[in-house]
Amino acid sequence: MLETLTQGFQNATERLRGVRELSEESIDEALRDVRMSLLEADVDFEVVRDFLGQVKEKSLGGRVETRARDSSGRKIRVTPGQQFVKICQKQLTQLMGPVDPSLLKLRGATSVMLLGLQGVGKTTVAAKLARHMQKAGIRPLLVAADVYRPAAADQLETLGEMLGVPVHRGTPGESPPDICRAAADRAREQRLNGILYDTAGRLAIDDALMVELEEIEAAVSPANKILVCDALMGRDAVNVARSFNERIAIDGIVMTKLDGDARGGAALAVKAATGVPIKFLGTGETLDKLEEFRPDGLASRILGMGDIVGLVQDFEEVVDEKEAEEDAERLLQGQFTLEDLVKQLRMLQKVGSLKDILGKLPGMGQMA
Could you tell me if 318 and 285 lie in one domain? Predict the structure, then answer.
């Protein structure tokens, strides 16, 4: 993912290879590649201009340390190109952050209202967040508040059965605010400490949609109001986030389909343009493919430096620590069998595709 952005930063780094100092001329040449990649990635022009200005200011105005110490304490030489990459990484992280991916609680329960346009994957995200809550020890209730899309409630019930999560759906003719209010009462009665309201979307932002969302907010006072955006929307995702935020104070964004987006402009620009942070990323179709957004991790991947922390977190989700220690001991003793190999390969399949794994390894992005 984000190949367009990565290629631009890699071209800029290549231009600085062999350069002895960061002069204004060399920085302008490097930033030209960065500018083109950001614009091709559909990042808002104002965001691009501010980002490039900050990178240039830091590159020219700061003292360049040509000597540094690595993790083992040895002295190593730092090139101007590496210094430029460090500045870019810091500015990218600031552009997308800071982010607190935790979900707030209200009156002892974690409540989330999902909103967004039609077709961005709100119902699937509701199930993914329910799975995320289960991992945190929360017992959620899914609420089918979309009474307009055919089979929306049926889809949510199917996903709820897969997770073992109860689903609340209204009676024919019941309004979405009343459905949500009844669901909140049910959650209290059944001692469920998490609730997810899957609201209806529209093909375009209209007043009727906003009024209905405002009525739901007034009825149940959700602690978290999360906007679901499609990364493939590009700059339109920023416009949608801005429009929703003007009517309803959004607490965060779930960016879906980022794994299928070669540009990534929405992920870069939405926080800077709207002030609303991305909290979660949807990186696959299965219900466990939802990860907490880490700006530093995504910045490292954009710069082709991988994301070791994210990779370790992925493995922690699927690897049993005791079983891994036993496998390692058998391997050291020369007792690693074909069955053990098959088990390891199946574990890798649960982590994700080989392309995703390579993309998070430093220096392996091009191979991915």
Answer: no
Residues 6+ apart with CB under 8 A from 129: 112, 114, 140, 196, 226, 254, 280, 290
In angstroms, the CA 288 to CA 91 distance is 30
CA 250 and chain centroid, separation: 16
Query: What is the CATH number for 259?
Result: 3.40.50.300
104: in domain: no
Omega before residue 166 within 30° of 0, cis: no
Contact partners, residue 265, CB within 8 Å, separation at least 6: 38, 41, 42, 43, 44, 234, 235
pTM for this prediction: 0.79
Confidence at 361, pLDDT banded by 50, 70, 90: low
In a shared domain, residues 320 and 224? no
DSSP string, 8-32: HHHHHHHHTTT-SS--HHHHHHHHH
Please check whether residue 170 is in contact with residue 182, taking contact to mean a CB–CB distance below 8 angstroms.
yes
Tokens of 176: 């979405």
- 240-249 residue pLDDT tens: 888 888 888 8
Q: Which helix (H) or strand (E) holds 230?
A: strand 224-230
Tokens linked to 291: 């990860």
Q: Which two tokens stand for residue 101?
A: 């991916």
Higher pLDDT, 254 or 321: 254
Tell me which range, 80-94, 102-116, 256-270, is most confidently predicted by mean pLDDT.
Answer: 102-116
**Mean per-residue pLDDT of the chain:** 82
Assigned domain for 102 exists? no
Please tell me what DSSP assigns to residue 364: -
What tens digit of pLDDT does each residue of 17-29 get? 777 777 888 888 8
Q: Which domain holds residue 23?
A: 3-96
**pLDDT score recorded for residue 196:** 96
* Domain membership flag for residue 105: no
Together in a domain, 210 and 265: yes
CA distance 144 to 233: 25
Q: Is the pLDDT of residue 173 over 80?
A: yes
Q: Do both 128 and 229 map to the same domain?
A: yes
User: In whole angstroms, how far apart are CA 139 and each of 144, 165, 167, 189, 321?
Assistant: 17, 8, 12, 13, 25
